[in-house]
Structure formats: structure tokens, C-alpha cells
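Discussion board: Methods & Data

I've been asked by a reviewer to show the raw model output for two of the constructs in my manuscript, not just the figures. I'm not sure how much to include, so I'm pasting the format here to get opinions. Each protein appears as its amino acid sequence followed by a line of C-alpha cells. Is this the kind of thing reviewers expect to see in a supplement, or should I convert it first? Here is construct A:
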Amino acid sequence: MTDLLAALLLGLIEGITEFLPISSTGHLLIAQHWLGHRSDLFNIAIQAGAILAVVLIYRERLVQLAMAFLRPGTAPEAVHGQPPRDYAWKLLASFGVTAVLGLLVKALGWELPTEITPIAWALILGGAWMIVAEQLAARRAAKLGERSAISWTTAILVGVAQVVAGVFPGTSRSGATIFVALLAGTTNRAAATEFAFLVGIPTMFAATGYELIDVLQAGEAANEDWGMLAVAFTASAITAFVAVKWLLRYIQSHRFTAFAVYRAVLGAALLLWLPAGI
């Protein structure tokens, strides 16, 4: 397989898996065992492509939240039943929790594990947790009724969930944050998903920028194949756009059970078929 085709496939994998609750990091680490390890700049580029897709999808919401600060005297449309400024402050609070805890994790010297075995277990356990969490969320929704608002408690817990997902590849940032929001009281799946995706924008931009500074300071960009990088970036952006649009339609009438089953099957297959110690 040529390097260009491998780069294209990795871009497609990142775009499809970044915002679906199946773990993009886990899938990329697995794929790179067969397609070859890529540079940090490459991984930054394909993640940036996925972020760009979500920014484009939520561009109207982002403008609405920005206008709530730039034009405080107006009465803008509510965001899931709450004032846009309140919603924006909760997004910032959630991101702030992630940033503080993320820097703490970095300071403690944590490094992303690359072995497939723990990723496989994370996929399985995460799938089981998703099924249990969805049942609990459904009971909570039946008891409390339809709730779309994001509470301060939900915002803080979503911030914590992002860090936990980053520490354990295979967990899924989107899955962890969506289900934490559902369990914390936002019973509307669409509202929980939107908040999880919106708070992911500054989180992923910050993480990408942090990593990019390290790469540039180390001089690693000088030897990069920019044509291959562009192909992977474009593939990631396009597929992420399609994947997120599809997911937003899917959750209007479906639960997340299919993703949980996929995670469990993939994790079990990896444990059964891979040599020990990988």
C-alpha cells in the first residue's frame, strides 16, 4: 500500500470516528499498527479537519452565542430553553474544567498508551457502559420528562468526562460527554449531543494548538510531506461533516445501542485475533 493511500485511509477513519461514540483515538492507534505510524503533525492535521467540519455544521449556533456577548442589549432566540449567554458561559465552564484537568494530567507526565489490548478492553467496557447508561437515562427521562437545558452540574461533569476519555483511548470523548449529559439531567438526546459537540470545538482546538506548538518547536514540520497531509486533512473534514450530519439525524429516532454493540464486537475481535502483548 502506498503512503498516499494509507494517509487517505487514516483521514477517512479520523473523520468517521471522531464524533461518533466509538473512539477515534482507539481506531487510529489500531489502524496505525497496520498502516504505519504517522507523525504528530499528521495526527494534528486530520484532527483539525474533523474540527473544521463541526465548526461548519454549527456555524449558525456559534454566531448566535457570539452575538449574545457582542450585542447584550438584544433578546436573541433561546438555546434549548435557556438564554444564549448562560449557555455560552456553561460551555466555557466545561472547557475550563477540561483545560485545568488536562494540564494537570500533562504535568503528571501521562503519555497516550499505544498497545491495542487496553484499547480493546476500553471498547468493550465502554460499550457495556453505554448500554447501561442509556437504560438509566431512559428511566430518568421517563421520570423527569423532556429536559433540554444544560445545568451547571452537567457542564462541569462534561468537562471532567472529556479528560477521562482523553486518558483512556477507546473510551470515546463524544460518547463519554453525551452520556454524562444524559445521566446528569439533560434527557433530550439532541440537546446533550449538541452541547458535547460544541464544547469539543474549543477543547480540540486547544489540544491541537498545544500539540502543534510542540511539533514546530521540535522542528518536525520540516520533513513533512505536505501533499499527503493535505489529502488526509481533506478526507477527514469531508467524512466528519457527513458523519456528524448523519448522526444528528439518526439520534432523532434511534438510541445509541448500535454503537455499543459495534464497540463490544470490535473489542472482542481484537482480543481474540491479536497476538498477546500487542
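Construct B, same format:
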Amino acid sequence: MEAYRDQYATMFNNGNGVVVLGISKDADTTLAAWAKESKFPMTFVSDTGAAIAKAYGNAAGDQYAKRLVVVIAPNGKITYRAPFNVMSADAYTKLGEEVKKTLSK
């Protein structure tokens, strides 16, 4: 997850013109403390009841298949959503491509 933080300016255009949400089943208090301690500039969403995961087909029963990442354009439209493997370099590459596509629209 540190790659999110470390690449924020280049990968996410410093949050200008695009919103990237990382969604997990971690408790909000856990996510908030972790994000503050690690100085993450992006937004994380707690989905302990898996409502978001189920709505986007990212849940298997009560368990997530993977964390979910969502890219939102300035008009509020979701332009990309996918399970996200934080350990995969390919996941960051794909996410970066999707952010660039959103910014170019």
C-alpha cells in the first residue's frame, strides 16, 4: 500500500480531477489510524458489512475476493472498479492507466 502513497502525485495526479478510493473490510477506526500513521493522502473506505463489495460483485459470501479500488471522474461517474491486489505491480500499472484515461476524458 505504500506504493499508493509514494506514487500519489504521479499516479493519481495529486488527486486533481480524479478520486481513487481504496475499499476494504477493515474497520473505519483501523483504516483511519493506519492512514494517518503512514501519511496516506488518499481516501480509504471501510466496508465492514461488505455492502459495497456485494453491490460490485467483489464478495464471496461474507469475505472479499480482494480489496476493491474505484476511480471516480470529476462528474461523479465511476470510470473504473476492480478487485485490487496490493502486492501486484500489474495492479498498480492497470490502475495508473485507468486514472490517465479518466483524466483525458
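Answer (T.O., handling editor elsewhere):
This is acceptable in a supplement if you add a one-line summary per construct. For B, something like: The CA atoms of residues 19 and 76 lie 9 Å apart.
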